[in-house]
Amino acid sequence: LDPEEFRRQGHMIIDFLADYYHDVEKYPVQSQVEPGYLRKCLPKSTPHNPEPIETILQDVQEHIVPGLTHWQSPNFFAYFQCTTATKLETIVVDWLGQMLELPKSFLFSGNGGGVLQGTACEAVLCTIVAARDQMLSQIGRENLIKLVVYASDQTHCAIQKAAQIAGIHPMNFRAIKTSKSTSYALSPDSLRAQICEDVDAGLVPLFLCATVGTTPTAAIDPLESLCAVAKDYGMWVHVDAAYAGSAYICPEFRHFIDGVEGANSFSLNAHKWFLTSLDCCCLWVKDPSALIKSLSTNPEFLRNKASDSKQVVDYKDWQITLTRRFRSLKLWFVLRSYGVANLRSFMRNHVKMANHFEGLVAMDKRFEIVVPTNFAMVCFRILPSALSERVYKNGKLDIVSEEHANEANRKLLESINISGCVFMTHAVVEGVYVIRFAVGATLVEERHVITAWKVVQEHANVMLSTYKP
Ligand code: PLP
Question: What ligand 1 atom has the least distance to the C-alpha of 215?
């Protein structure tokens, strides 16, 4: 959206909302539609091409509004005041699941389904809790202390936090070591070796989190073979696609999640790289009943005909919180106003820009690309050899240690960021400090990437000219 179009659409939305509040008294306060009515009104999948805001707003008025219970109505005297939620969510998560070519078993149109939660941390917590209770119902609740959660040492700390909250003993969280030889992906052999050791020690393998696009380097854990190992031990597999999940709507990236049919759950943060504002984490599960068994409550004050009939999805039983935001509306707007075609080209454009940046880094022999670039993230650093060229000992060039190289790269990043021209972050992989250049901002263009590289070079020039270890 260019700023003028954004302004125009913003004004339309304000008019829409003003009209809504003007008329809200006229609507039946509680929705009068039959369960499932919305699925009949809307298309079966995300439109391929973008749709104009006018059409989308017209559908909101004609199809979404009748399905709402009007919590903002002055005639609302039910629960304590709050905002609205709706059934649109079941449709939107199916649309997105189809775009990702998730197996049908993850969709409502199969026997699974999806839910929009706030963050990946919440989503993983819900799945660990479901897996935990499923396992404990077989082996007895007194065995909680024996349950083990597995992930790689590149996995986001959200998983460890979720395991802790779920009551997994802190000593039973395994962050399995990865290395450059597998581009920091989790090796199925290492996983099996660790599981065997744990089983021999009398522990019970419970849960594996495989990440397809890790936070430090966008590494991709091999789903098919990891799921095969997990299956041998009856473990729950969760796929964390928080960052890179968005890219899997492009056919050329989809193969990275081949084997997902062996997993139990899959999550993607639409608020990361999918043009949706915070917060919006999509979680799909194959067996919603496992979630529901762990998370459901049925207090009398919430009982209603629709929920009792089991014809509607009662999302309070799929997540931690009871009250929920209307996240599906913003995601629905994104899907319709961009369409599959434009969403794909948005990702591809970012990947292209990251590749361009990678090419610029590769041409400067003072730098190295530390891990192969996946998606739109480049991990690079100044080489120790570039620093050595500046350091003389007894009249000869000296070797600069990795430790000194790390310190130099840390200082380089600090000076780049202090300049305020660009902002990048870092990661440490196998003791090596790397600078992460993640292309993902909605408004980024090729010229920003080129300028960013110039800024890196300028700061590197200054640092090298005065370098002392
Ligand atoms: N998983 C991965 C791969 C991530 O990159 C992140 C955040 O950067 C998370 C999980 C955590 O996401 P959230 O902040 O939504 O809990």
Answer: 5
**124 Cα–ligand 1 center, Å:** 10
Distance CA 69, CA 193 (A): 53
Pocket residue to mutate for ligand 1, from 116, 269, 377, 425, most atoms within 8 A of Cβ: 269
Q: Note the pLDDT of residue 468.
A: 77
Contact by Cβ (8 Å): 240, 200? no
Residue 411 and residue 352 share a domain: yes
In a domain, residue 72? The reply is no
pLDDT tens for each residue of 226-273: 999 999 999 999 999 999 999 999 999 999 999 999 999 999 999 999
In this structure, the residue with its CA closest to atom 14 of ligand 1 is 119
How far does residue 390's CA lie from ligand 1's centre (Å)?
39
Clarify whether residues 49 and 132 are in a common domain. Answer: no
Same domain, residue pair 202 and 127: yes
pLDDT higher for 152 or 278?
Answer: 152
Round to whole Å and give the CA distance between 350 and 356. Answer: 10
Number of domains in the chain: 3
> Strand 204-211 and strand 173-176: pairing?
unpaired
User: For the domain that residue 444 is a member of, what is the CATH number?
Assistant: 3.90.1150.10
What residues does ligand 1 touch, defined as CB less than 6 Å away? Answer: 119-121, 156, 158, 211, 214-215, 240, 242-243, 269, 281
**Same domain (yes/no): 233, 192:** yes
Whether 25 and 150 map to the same domain: the answer is no
pLDDT in tens, 445-458: 999 999 999 999 99
- 150/195 Cα distance (integer angstroms): 9
* Mean pLDDT, the chain, whole residue set: 91
User: What is residue 81's predicted lDDT score, i.e. its pLDDT?
Assistant: 47
* Residue 381, SS3 per DSSP: strand
The tokens describing 230, both together, are 């997990």
Q: In which domain, by residue range, is 17 found?
A: 3-67
278: pLDDT strictly greater than 60? yes
109 and 184 belong to one structural domain: yes
* Strand ordering across the sheet containing 432-438: 367-369, 377-382, 432-438, 425-429
Predicted TM-score (pTM) of this structure: 0.90
Residue 300 lies in a domain: no
Nearest atom (ligand 1) to Cα of 121: 16
Point out the domain boundary residue: 11, 37, 67: 67
